[in-house]
Amino acid sequence: MLRVKNLHKAFDEFKAVDGAHLRVEKGQLVAVIGPNGAGKTTLFNLICGQLQPDKGKILLDDEDIGKLPPHVICRKGIARSFQIANIFPRLSVFRNAQVSVLSQQKLSNKLFHPAAQLAVDETDHILDSVGLLDKKMDLAGSLSHGDKRILEIAIALGNLPDLLILDEPTAGMSPDETTTTMALIQRLAADQGLTILFCEHDMEVVFGTAESIMVMQQGHTIVQGDPQTVRQNIEVQQAYLGDE
Amino acid sequence: MFGELIRQKSFGVSLVLFLTLLVAPSFLPRFYIYILAVIFVTALLAMSLNLCVGHGMLFQFHHGVFYGVGAYTAGLLLVKTSLPWWIALIAGPLAAAFAGLLIGMFCIRLNRLYFGMLQISLGSLIWAIAFRWYDLTGGDDGIHGIPIPDFIASTTGSYFFVLIVTVICLLLMFLILKSPFGSTLQAIRDNPERCAAVGINVRRHQLITIIIATFFGGVAGVLFVIVEGSIFPDLLFWTLSLEIFIMCLLGGWFTFAGPILGAALIVSLRTFVGTYTEYWTLILGVILILLIFFLPEGLMGTNYRQLFRSRVKYNGEYQTE
Questions:
Q1: A chain contacts of residue B298, beta-carbon cutoff 8 Å
Q2: What pLDDT, in 10s, does the model give residues A119-151?
Q3: Is B141 on the interface with A (CB under 8 A)?
Q4: What are the Cα distances from residue B17, in Å, to B34, B212, B252?
Q5: Does B186 touch chain A (CB under 8 A)?
C-alpha cells in the first residue's frame, strides 16, 4: 500500500532522514522505532506532506505523493495524529471530531447551514468508538492529556482513512493509559480494517502489538521485518536494543 | 436555518435591545440618534474585522482600507455618475470584496505578523491613491455633500436604514460562524497545521474568509457615506484600522458580539470625552493597559466567575462555546 524508497531530507547541514525505506501492506500494523533524533517524526511529516523530501520516493498505491500538500494527501486516504496533542482547544470535543468529518464529506465550505445539525451521527459514532462520547460537549482544551491524545486519534478517524499514521500515540501517558490506548488502536485496526503506521518509544508496546517493525538510526533504515527478525538482527541489537 | 439563533441564551436580550433601538428616535434627541448610527456603522466594521482576527486568527491589520474602498466606491458613483443610487450602494461592498481578494491573495502566503505587515503596506498603497488622485477623489479634502436618496437622507431615515442593514449583516455573520464554514475557520484559527492534515485547504478557506470580511467592511463603508454624506482619505488611514482592532480586543475577540461592545465604548469615549479634551486617547491607552493585564480575552470573553473566585492568577481558561 505504502512504499518509501530511499528518502532523504536535510535541514541545512543536518540530515534528518538519510536513506529511509518502508513497506506498509494493507491491513498491517507497522511500527517505526529508533532512538531520539532518529528521524521518525520527520519521516512521518514527509509522508503526510508537512515537509517535502529532498530525494527519494513516497508511493501510495504506486502513485508518487512526495510533492503533494498535506490536504491533498489527506484526501487520498492518509490521516495522522501528531506527537504533541494537536487538537482545537477552543472548540468542544464534538466539534473537534466534526471538523474532519465535515472535511471528509466535503461540507467544510458550506455557508448558512447550522453545523450543529450536520454529520452528527457520524461524529457521535467516532467519539463512541474511541470512548469520548460522554465528554462530547466539554471544551477540548480542558481535557486530560490522555483524553487529548485519544481525541487526536478521533479527529484522524473522521477522515475515514485507509492508512492511519500515529506519531507516538502514547507519549506522556501513564502505564494504564498506554495499555488502554494500545488496546484501542488494535481494536480500531481489527474492527475497521485500518492499516496503521505508528512510531513509539516503549519497546514492550512495539513488540507486543506491531506485525512489522522498521528500525531507524540517524535517519536511515537498519532493517524492517517481523518482531522476531528485528529482535535477532545484530545491527539492531548493537545500535539500539543494546543501549538499554 | 434560524433555529440556531433562537436557541441562543442571549436571543431574548438581543431582541429587546433591537426593539428598543427601533423606537429610540421617538424619544432620543437627534444628536444621540446620529451617534447611535455611527456606533452601528463602526460596530459592523469591527464585527467584519473580527471574522478575520477573532475567528480566523488572521491579523488583518489594515481592515480600514476596505471600509474606505466601500465608502469611496459608493460616494464616487453617487457624485460622478448618473447611475441609480442602489447600484452605488451595492457596488461599494463588491468593490471592497474585490480589493480584499486582490490584497488577500498576496498576504495569505504569509503567516501571522508577516501577513499583517504586508497588509499594512498594500493597504497604504490604496490610501495613497485616494490621497493623491486629486481629480477623482478630491485628495486630502475628500468629497462632501454627497447626494443621498431622499428616504434615507434625514437623520432618522439614515438611522433606520443603518440599523436594519447592520442587523441583517450581523445575522448573516452569525449564521456563517455557526455553519460548517465558520466551524472550520475556528478550527483553522486554533490549529492550521492540524486542519491541513484533515484535508482542509487552509489558504483557500482563509482567502474566502477575507473576501467575506472585506465585503461586510465595504457595507459599513457605504453606511458611513449614508450617515455622513462625505468621504475623505482618513477612512483608509491605518490609525482607523488600529482603532477597530482595539475594539475587537476590548470587547472580546473570541466572542461573537464583543466587537459591538468595543465599538460602542470607543465611539462613546471619543464623542463624549473627546469634547472635553483632545487627549481622550490617553484614557483609551490606560484602558488598554488594564485590559492586557486583567482581561486578556476582552470584556465579553472573560470568565468572570473564575476571575473573582480565586486569587490565583487568571489562567485564561478558554471560554468559547
A1: none
A2: 889 999 999 988 888 998 999 888 888 888 889
A3: no
A4: 17, 26, 20
A5: yes
Mutate to test the interface with B, among A80, A81, A102, A164 (most CBs of B within 10 A): A102
The count of residues in chain A is 244
The interface predicted TM-score (ipTM) is 0.83
Contact A218/A19 with Cβ under 8 angstroms? Answer: no
Summarize pLDDT for B47-64 with one digit per residue, the tens: 999 999 989 888 989 999
pTM above 0.90, yes or no: no
Question: What's the order of all strands across the beta sheet hosting A29-33?
Answer: A78-81, A163-167, A195-199, A29-33, A212-217, A220-225
Cβ separation B318–A89 shorter than 8 A:
yes
Contacts of B257 (CB under 8 A, 6+ apart): B10, B251, B300
Domain boundaries, chain A: 2-77+161-243
Collapse the DSSP code of A217 into the 3-class scheme (helix H, G, I; strand E, B; otherwise coil) and give the result. strand
d(CA B77, CA B98): 16
Q: In A, which residues are within 8 Å of B193 by CB distance? A: 50, 70, 82, 86
Query: What is the C-alpha separation between A87 and A166, in angstroms, rounded?
Result: 14
Contacts of A191 (CB under 8 A, 6+ apart): A129
Alpha-carbon span B30 to B33, nearest angstrom: 5
The CATH homologous superfamily to which domain A2-77+161-243 belongs is P-loop containing nucleotide triphosphate hydrolases (3.40.50.300)
Cell triple for B57: 486568527
What's the length of chain B? Answer: 321
**For residues A76 and A55, is the Cβ–Cβ distance under 8 A?**
no
Looking from the CA of A30 toward its CB, the CA atoms found within 13 Å total 25
